[in-house]
Amino acid sequence: MTSTTELLDRAAGHLHAAAQQVDNLGHLHDSPSLRAFAGQIRLNAAGLSCDPEPIESRWVDCSIPEQLKAALDSLDEIHPLEGPPDLPMWAWHVADLVRIAKDTDAR
After folding, report:
1. Cα dihedral angle (101, 103, 61, 55), rounded to 10 degrees?
2. Nearest to 78 by CA among 60, 66, 90
3. How far apart are CA 79 and CA 59, in angstroms?
4. Which of 11, 13, 87, 94 has a beta carbon 3.0–4.6 Å from 53's, enabling a disulfide?
5. Can you give the pLDDT at residue 52?
6. Whole-angstrom distance, CA of residue 90 vs CA of residue 29
7. What's the confidence (pLDDT) of residue 36?
């Protein structure tokens, strides 16, 4: 069984990977909005863990929404009574990031 700390670290790792992809797109398209979105993703990652886990190689080529969804899935694996008291808030924030990424991807 994976510990709560490991799941939080894994979620933060996925968030950092997604933020890096968004940041790369922001620099490629010279988009302040994308760079700001990358900052929002990193802010959420920092709230979850100060020691994010590097992502597995199978996740490297995933899309931004897939990375964010993987982070949310990691958070969903945490039993509410075993996680931090603000776990539902962080899960809500990450779910919102998934929605934003999908909306942006559809444009």
Report:
1. 20
2. 90
3. 24
4. 13
5. 85
6. 29
7. 95
Tokens of 80: 């509410």
**Within the chain, which residues score under 70 in pLDDT?**
1, 57-59, 105-107
Question: 86-104: per-residue pLDDT in tens?
Answer: 999 999 999 999 999 999 8
End-to-end CA distance of the chain: 40
In 10 A of CB 41, how many CB atoms?
29
> Token pair 């670290």 is at which residue?
9
Q: Rounded to whole angstroms, how far apart are CA atoms 23 and 18?
A: 9
- SS3 annotation, 14-45: HHHHHHHHHHHHHHHCCCHHHHHHHHHHHHHH
